[in-house]
Amino acid sequence: MNSRLLKIFETGFLGLLGFTLIAQQQKRFQCAAPYFSFISHSELQQFRLRFPSLYVLDKFQVEHLLSVIRNQTTQTKDFRLYSDRLIRLLMEKAISEHSKKLAPPEGSQTQTPAQEIQFENKQFCVVVMVRSGNAFLGEALKVLPGASVGFILVQEHPQTKDPQLMYCKFPEDIDQKQVILTDAMITTGGRISTAIKALQSNGVNQENIAAVNIVSCEKGLSKVLHQFPKVKVITAGVDYALNTIQDHRFPGVGDFGDRYFGTVDQ
């Protein structure tokens, strides 16, 4: 083989190798199980120093659950099962953070074999962001069976893509409640910010809101926590990046609502 043909061969081979590596990286973003990439521990610590109202579940507590949810081949029944297990952990963390500031109401004593304890879950309101936030409701009412429930619908404007408040229904005394606001993901932060503003318009203080989601993006989190520094955000992990064309997280979990409710196009 002469030197010219050898050079052409090497150039073609290197190009093919580069294309293969890019394809593998894209595949990793699409289907990240059993590997998945969040921001590093040190980056997360720095992020939390900037935003102390951010709470991220322990990696070793959720690693396996997230690896199943991230896998694009996971079937609906397993996606729902593992999502519910993760949602339960998130809800319990939200209750824990809210309860730190609650004074037990009078008459809420429960007699145990050892002593009296105090707890009243009627102090809570779960506000569901339609539609992916509906997935949280079942587990929420298992741990807070006496909680009231509100609903809020935020949709993008078809031309401007700005989030618009389309519908909300809250309990009349929501301004007296500890609110747990549920949505599957925080991407750009626009949806959740619109929902928080709607709660504030109904008398809810920032410090009485905990926004619970499965995965978040740095960009969206920064926007929300800059605008609402007293709102608690509770998530299972923070993704590195956002696809600016589709507003999907990398590596992400796909369309959570479609996957959870079994409406994925085949």
Global shape? globular
- How many beta-strand runs? 12
Structural class by SSE content? alpha/beta
Mean pLDDT: 81
What series of H and E elements makes up the topology? Answer: HHEHHEEEHEEEEHEHEEEH
Main β sheet profile: 8 strands, mixed
Question: What is the terminal separation in angstroms?
Answer: 49 Å
Number of domains: 1
Task: State the main characteristics.
8-stranded mixed β-sheet, 266 residues, Rossmann fold, 12 strands, alpha/beta, two-stranded antiparallel ribbon, 8 helices
Can you describe what's shown?
The protein is an alpha/beta fold and 266 residues long. The chain has one domain (39-102, 116-261): Rossmann fold (3-Layer(aba) Sandwich). The protein has 8 helices and 12 strands. The strands form 3 sheets. Strands 1, 4, 5, 6, 7, 8, 9 and 10 form an 8-stranded mixed β-sheet that branches. Strand 8 (185-186), helix 6 and strand 9 (209-217) form a beta-alpha-beta unit. It is globular, with a radius of gyration of 22 Å. Residues 16-36 have low confidence and may be disordered.
